Task: structure prediction
Amino acid sequence: MPSMPIAPAIGVNALTKSYGKVDAVRGISFRVEAGQTVGLLGGNGAGKTTTLSMLLGVLKPTSGTIEMLGMSLAKQRYDILPRINFTSPYVDLPKRLSVVENLRVFAGLYGVSDARQRISALLSELDLEAVADRPYANLSAGQRTRVSLAKSLLNSPELLLLDEPTASLDPDVGDRMRSLLERYRAQSGCAMLLASHNMAEVERLCDLVIMLRQGEIVDSGSPAQLLAKYGRHTLDDVFLDISRQGAQ
Amino acid sequence: MSGSLITRGSSARRIGALLARHYFLLRKSWPRLLSFAYYPVMQLLVWGFVTQYLGPQSASQGVLQAVPGILLTGVLLWDVLVRGELGLFLSFLEEMYSRNLGNLFVSPLRLHEFVIAQMLMSIVRVVVGSGVALLVAVTFFDLKIAQQALALSLCLGCLLMFGWAIGMIANGLVLRFGLGAEEIGWAVVFLIGPLSGAYYPLSVLPEFLQAVAYALPTAWAFDAMRAALIDGQIAGRALGISLALDVIYLAIGAALFAWFVEAGRERGLLLQMGE
Result:
């Protein structure tokens, strides 16, 4: 008996976003399979955040379609949202609320059952227990990033969209965050789409890398495939090759 | 893993979560709570002393006997309108200031749940703010409105709803034009002050302004207030028209807010809103 095909976590087809005559994203298509981690790489203005914003439903595409978890984002947004989550440097949490209060609010918004236990587990896992009752405003940048990550894991998402998730963390905390994301993926089978400038992070976490330049996909492949194709030892060098090809 | 931890959250739970957000904020900030009552009480005190000044002069002059009560009740009900609008507007600004709108718009929270939570917060503001002011008016300025409680409660409801309509429009403008449009949100409710007749009948306005004023639910609600205080009547027609206009303005406010959100989605404003 043939098995049912598993829907991709993300299916993007001919996605375009234009602001007047400026095309921020130009007809890109890609898939993120269930359980896969995909990196979205590109220089500033390449279209990474624009793409993530469209996937989150806070930016309306000019054309093209987005499917997530087997559903159309345009038609079934509110069936999709409880099953995904995100972190982004463009948003913050209420600063006068404590860490626990913020997490309780979002647990309510995401309909998390047994919220106390879930919050407690996340605080422990992200090493935030000592600051649990501290106002968010009084946290360091690294602690805030961890709280934001805790918020994004509250509903045990099947799909995580991560925009620069470890940007402001020191190497030690950044490494622990990456380990946490790896553990979470292994435990839950969660798919992740990661926009990052940290090539070591991308190399470590991602099964597939999509290179964006000026709103278009210019290359894609596993980190190993890209290294081999460009004859380089690091993704940093591959990134520079691709970026500079565009500049020439 | 996700299936075991997630229950499909109900609408009430999401609204409750937003109310909890405001409760957490208020319980640790007594100045913020105090500010709910501060402005209404100060306003009431000023007008209370004005009525004490006018009282002896109007005591024996027919309809003017009701003037102190009309002024004080007008102050209280006008404040309901202002609190109604600010209840929505300030709750929205809180999210803007904290750059939290992106988190909310990407959560399962529906737009109407977001607005309902703001409306409930505005009711809290009215109950606390106007409630304390009413207590001051009754205790120190001998305001007697218990017999007109039903009629005045209906006026209050009409004014509160119009405050919500203005609040939704103000929120939409801030969403579309950013915090630079914040001043509009603070000022817009006072624009209709002269046309609302909170302290005087609309017959004192020039005729062309009367026509404009009667397109506002406030004018009819304050007419109903005067009918209750002077004649002891429930002005059913005025209240009915006020309510009907409220429904129209609420529909316009909701449609505009939804349109501004959609425009924000078109332009990519929702994730990047903040200070």
Remarks:
- Strands of chain A lie at 10-19, 22-32, 37-41, 63-68, 71-72, 84-87, 159-163, 191-195, 208-213, 216-221.
- The first helix of chain A runs from residue 48 to 56.
- The mean pLDDT of chain A is 91.
